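Morning!

This is the sequence you dropped in the shared folder:
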Amino acid sequence: MHLFRSSLVMLLLLTLITGLVYPLLVTGLANLFFPWQANGSLIYQDDKLIGSTLIGQPFYRTDYFQGRPSMTAEMPYNSMASGASQLASSNPLLLNEVTQRVQTWQKMMNNHQVVPVDLVTASGSGLDPHISMQAAYYQADNIAHQRQLAKNEINQLIKSNTISPFISFMGEPVVNVFTLNQALDKLTFEKKANE
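The structure's back. Tokens below.
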């Protein structure tokens, strides 16, 4: 009986510490020191939630930069169903999907250049909001043409929205598609306002 009581007390104590005290402490400290990040890095426009810098979202218009394909269930970038396609690299279905995506990109860009791999393959979570710099520059000509902007303006926009890793050997520079498209809208608006 003594062993049962001490086990029960330990269970309740550890449940209280790890299930209540620790999460509340971490959440409180995160909200104190990093309030924007702790609340999901949400972006508002005119008091309306339009997205998050942490989760990718689809852009259906051709005058926007496109992100990685999303394999989440029901709809693209569904944060409630995060996950990859689960197809092995040797699976013919995956090869077929990637081949179709390459052909779609080449048709959309009207060229037969090599398509950056992150534009034709989904991330492990299916929610990645970033693309490589190569993927952004690959789309630059099309965006410049669609928005009637100079290509060097688009290239500068990509460069100014590039996120470098904290430590250089920890990864490659990436571009957040959502924030890049926001900057693109802002540039387009400013150019039209100055005409």
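Headline: The beta strands are 42-45, 48-52, 130-132, 162-163, 174-176.

More detail when I'm at my desk.
O.
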